[in-house]
Design a protein that fits this description.
With 298 residues, this protein is of the alpha+beta class. It has nine helices and 13 strands. It has two domains: 2-120, Rossmann fold (3-Layer(aba) Sandwich), CATH 3.40.50.10330; 135-289, Sandwich (Tumour Suppressor Smad4), CATH 2.60.200.40. The chain has helices at 21-30, 45-53, 66-81, 99-103, 110-119, 147-150, 153-159, 161-171, 234-245, and strands at residues 2-8, 33-39, 59-64, 89-93, 122-130, 133-135, 138-142, 178-184, 187-199, 223-229, 254-259, 261-274, 277-297.
């Protein structure tokens, strides 16, 4: 029989997997897979399991939220970079906002998503290299980036996406621009930025309108860089907030670039998030595209 490694986070999305767990195993078994089940217990488990035994299977399926996805992608890419031959990946979205699943049109219903994996073919998706780490769909600094990992787990489970919004509102009075020099596409520009991100997604934080112009492709070898400059006056800040809420990418406060490599340098270390998880404090950051490195079963 074919072998399937099923790594899941039991606590993701208010325990979303528990009522359908047996159904998922049956779906895999019906496709003639012998299933090895690995529940995560602590940070780093998903990454470690793929590094340890991912090459022994015919399929790897991750089930969880951003943390599980981020760890799994890191383990997968690290294994590839050390010469391991790995099978295609499946992803069952069990988190709060499920941005990655939305971008790849993966059903949010876990049983439907599992059936799609069993019937699917690999879609070779880009990933990101962030210094010595990887990310699936977004690396960001500045305003609100701490929200994803500072929001209490109990609030996430009780209020879902609203929890992120409530936590973000608390930060508004304290937001200040970060001095940053950016090198990209042969250009160098410096300013104070409230927020910056490098992304490969059509959804961020549950906001689904990023691809209204149809320019975002998940396997084209290019990421989208969005930088939000710090306004000088309260009136300008009000205009910026309106532009952000309406996703006005033509705002004079926003700089939008497509690139395969970008470098950020700041006078002091700046905290980053990777796929909604804390990515460390960095003074110099290099981000590049790992083109079509992830075979996602769709």
């Amino acid at each position: 029989m074919k072998r399937l490694l099923f790594i899941y986070n039991p606590g993701a999305g208010k325990g979303k997997i528990r009522p359908v767990f047996c159904d998922l195993i049956q779906i895999f078994a019906s496709a003639e897979y012998q299933v090895t089940v690995v529940p995560t217990r602590r940070a780093g488990d998903a990454q470690a399991e793929i590094r340890r035994q991912g090459m022994l299977f015919d399929c790897i399926v991750l089930c969880g939220g951003d943390g599980t996805l981020h760890e799994g992608i890191n383990g997968y890419v690290q294994a590839l970079q050390t010469g391991d031959r790995l099978p295609p990946l499946g992803y069952l979205p069990a988190g709060t906002t499920n941005d990655y699943a939305y971008s790849l049109q993966i059903p949010f219903q876990l049983k439907r998503a599992a059936k799609k994996i069993m019937d699917g073919k690999p879609f070779y998706c880009d990933a990101g290299q962030f210094n010595d780490r990887c990310f699936a769909y977004v690396a960001a600094f500045g305003a609100f980036t701490e929200v994803a990992y500072s929001t209490p787990r109990q609030s996430k489970q009780a209020f879902g996406h609203l929890a992120y919004v409530m936590e973000g509102i608390k930060q508004l009075p304290a937001i200040k621009g970060i001095p940053m020099t950016v090198r990209c596409n042969g250009e160098i520009f410096s300013d104070r930025y409230l927020y910056g991100m490098v992304s490969n997604t059509t959804s961020l934080g549950g906001f689904r309108g990023l691809n209204r112009q149809g320019r975002i492709l998940l396997n084209d070898g290019r990421f989208e860089v969005i930088l939000v400059r710090e306004p000088e006056t309260l009136a300008d800040r009000s205009t910026l907030m309106t532009d952000l809420l309406t996703l006005n990418l033509d705002s004079r406060w926003l700089k939008v670039i497509q690139t395969n490599r970008v470098e950020f340098v700041s006078p002091a270390p700046v905290p980053w998030t990777l796929d909604g998880e804390f990515g460390g404090d960095c003074q110099k950051t290099e981000v590049s595209v790992l083109r079509r490195i992830l075979p996602i079963l769709l």
